Amino acid sequence: MTDLDQAAVLQTRVSRRRASRFQINGYFFFILPGVAFVLALTLFPALYGVYISLTNLNLGYVGSSFVGLDNYVRFFTWNDLGLVARNTLTFVATSVILQVVIGLAVAILLDQRLIGHRLMRSITILPWVLPSVVVGLVFAQIFGGSRLGIANYLLSLVGIGQMSWFADPALAMAILIGVCTWRGIPFAVIVLLGGLQTLPRDVYEAAAIDGATRWQRFRYITLPMLRPIILICLIMGTGGALNSLDIPLALTGGGPGNATELIAISLYKQSFLQLDISYGATIGTVMLVANLVLIVLYLSVLKPRRRAERG
């Protein structure tokens, strides 16, 4: 290769690098307004909430002052912290696991393209379309403790006496988990169904020719290839359940007593009932840290597999 040819090749490489940099900068230019808008609605309120948590701001008083970590000391020495943390952990873990498991089963069923699968897809997303507060109020009426409650009316038809559904702590938590799971399943179905439809069919055909059963194809092909999608469902579901307020507040309000009180309900009560904005911001900051820790844990589960695949 002559010097002229080498110079032409070098010039071509430089031109390609400049073009790729220009293309990347163009992408950043187009997404910059969206990124700025999201940061303005998320990052600034989060940082401002951290600042408020370091003060004694109360809507019942005129001024406020800096108190440092006093609100955090108050939170971690809170008498009901253990109960609320246990309720939140039970609610989040159970509802998220049920959403992913049931959502995966429904997604696999809808992916079979059976008769009426288009209609079933439309019906599946209905719970997600309904407003959360409406869902909570409707189920509160269904499980009402009087004769007007739909569940008690159905029980009376088979000769069973009326029940006080929300008087029993375990039953109230079970109903709350069931309703929030029913509300969250459609999102998991949509995400997992989209993931299933992107899986290569030739892999399944080759496995079937080799004699693999349906369970073996599901265990060794579907689950490993859907692993990133499942983790996305776990991250989104965990964040939604941890920050869930509308359905728990409309359905149980944290009762009976504090048996179903979640961390989000405590934040609401402190901020808008007690008007203690600084303490509510403290609870919100703790929830933010918990969300970030859980996201890092989920991503750490995904990272080793990616390294293995690259190696």
UniProtKB/TrEMBL annotation:
InterPro entries: ABC_transporter_permease, MetI-like, MetI-like_sf. It is a multi-pass membrane protein. GO terms for cellular component: plasma membrane. Coiled coil: none annotated. It is found in: Cell membrane. GO terms for biological process: transmembrane transport. Residues 85-298 form the ABC transmembrane type-1 domain. Keywords: Cell membrane, Membrane, Transmembrane, Transmembrane helix, Transport. The keyword Transcription does not apply. The chain crosses the membrane at residues 26-51, 88-110, 122-150, 170-193, 224-242, 277-301. The keyword Transferase does not apply. It comes from the Bacteria. PANTHER family: ABC TRANSPORTER PERMEASE PROTEIN, INNER MEMBRANE ABC TRANSPORTER PERMEASE PROTEIN YCJO. Belongs to the binding-protein-dependent transport system permease family. This is Carbohydrate ABC transporter membrane protein 1, CUT1 family. It comes from Kaistia soli DSM 19436.
